[in-house]
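ASSEMBLY PREDICTION REQUEST
Request ID: AP-0331
Submitted by: J.K., bench scientist
Number of chains: two
Total residues: 716
Priority: normal
Notes: Please return the full assembly, not individual chains.
Input sequences:
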Amino acid sequence: MVSEERAIAGGDWHPAGSSRSVAARLVARGGRIAAVPEGGDAALAEAPSGRAEISVRVGSIPRRVTFADGSVFETWDNDGIDRYLAANGRGGAGLVHWLEQFRLRLVVVVLAAFVLGAGIYRFGVPLLVEVAVRVTPPVVPELMAKGTMQALDAATFSPTRLAEAKRREIAEGFARIAAISPRGAAGYTLNFRDGGAIGPNAFALPDGTLVVTDQLVTLAGDDMEMIVGVLAHEIGHVELEHSLRQLYRAVGMAGLIMLIAGDVGSGVEDVLVQGGGLVALSYSRAAEAAADRRSVELMARAGFDPAAIARFFALLEEKLGDRSGTSMLSTHPGTPERRKDILDYARSLSGRQ
Amino acid sequence: MSLAGTSQPSAAGGGFHRVAFTGKASEYFGIWIVNVLLTIITLGIYSAWAKVRRNRYFFGNTVLLGRAFEYHARGLQILVGRLIVLGGLIVLNVLAALVPILVLLPTVVVLVALPWLVAKGLRFSARVTSYRNVRFDFVGTAGGAFKAFILGGLLAVITLGILSPLASRWVGRYIGTNLRYGGKAFDTDPRLGPLYKSWLLSLLIALVGLVIIGFLVVANLPMILAMIETPGALTPEQQVPLITSLVAGYVVLFVTFAVAGLFYRAGVRNITWSATTFDGQHRLMSDLSRRRYTWIAVTNVLVTLITFGLMRPWAAVRMARYTWEHTGVAFAGDVGELFARIEAQGSAIGAEFMDLEGFDFGF
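STATUS: Completed
Returned structure:
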């Protein structure tokens, strides 16, 4: 017979790997923990105190006590188990469960979660983006650009059919702009291509490779200064490292949604993704505006008409009448606003000089 | 809560023992918000342990015959599984970005690896789940996962949803026939007839949405035409109703397709579960009301959004309670006798330590 016996909890005992169960109670006696059948005394399983594995408390779900032989004692009596753990210096229900309880202190947890979450969104993601942009070796944008250029050349571009003189005129204007840019003229290469399916367009790749399509030059007519203004805008994108920034930002936001929204349900997640798309759109509009302003600055310092790019937007608006829906830019609702912002900025720049 | 499961008599006349869900919103709220906080503080690393706590809570409150299910995965296992998948994706995408010829590599590898990961993930989920001290197991192959999820999904998309019931049937069969409990097999064969009947209702709901959008287009047709012929001809005041209609159309589209999807999901669950047997004699059952299920899902999303996520725990518990309370099992013969016999079969025990979570696929 065993002397000092202290009941811990009542429940069921399972032999190892079996669904057969025996109504039992968990007891502490003589420095050991044992599962004893109801109305009996011989232990079904026992272990030295501290050697039986007791599952961590989560809410009020059943606790498992696993013995070395693989048999399991299961009980709904969480408090009994916690009392036993506390009495044996094993911390009771644990810190996480203490925090989780629906008490007033939970308000602090809620506030901390909201403040930290907002902080990561407002400061953490932009900071990480900055750091990532800084530590990215130049070879990465170079390789990215090379790949994109090869893909575009293979898929849609063909060699330019522009007159030599026209190309030289644009290249000279472009060189004047590039020379003032912090990266210097060597930091950029200008390419002429027949755009094919892409149509009238100009874009910059992150390593300083710029492309202007024949269709865009044709659209501009004789106004080569306007094309230089558009190229200055593209230089602005390269200088401000918009493509890398946008890439990292997209990654960061996806990470944040996954992180915080670990469990918001698929419906809310869909809505968040849609919302994230809108935020990304507004970010890219901000990037466009920044590049517009950079164009105005560069053009002014190179001695061109600072607002030349505004003429391009005016042209877009005008030409869209008979070229409905061919250009992605045509659906951009902000085109008149962009033009107005450019003119305002150009005026404020010349006012300061 | 009583633990009288063993002594409970078997329901007479093939009656169903319903599953109960005992979770409480207030209790889960604490678990949920602490999970969120610790996940943020640890920059995401804790999310693996958060998942364990969340699943332990939901499984541990899912009660059949007075006994709860249990979730046994460890945080570290899940973390390692996620890191491997994430690392693989990063390596693939960097390779694709750096070497242009390999631009399709990630897509190809993911397409090949996905079925394998799905099969692994399902096996993991099954093996870390137990009821009455006996683990589940899953024996589905990567080939089966390919047919059920990728081929089925592709067919459903290509045919604009017309073959969705076929895909649902394949998924149901893949999961339902490969699931094991104590070495004994589940079996299911959801029939196409009922699946199409359920699908037809969702089609009608989707059509209603399309008709509303058609009305919006017709109502705004003069202005849309004017817009196409001479862009910029519309004054900002004229654009307002147009933009309002555009937004309304988008919302109508989003909502009707979501509702159609929810109706369909509830219907498929009912049909698949009710066509499932365990060990050839015990029958499973699901009797969700499709309207009620959709109502709960839609209001859950709205309430969660309005409260900035704070009511998410309430929503999750509400949905779990509704679905589990409309799920049942009819045991053939004496339940006590049945559960005195079931033993874990070698491979499923402890083997989950070799498994990686891979992708999340609950069952």
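REVIEWER COMMENTS: Residues 236-274 of chain B form the longest helix (39 residues).
SIGN-OFF: pending second reviewer
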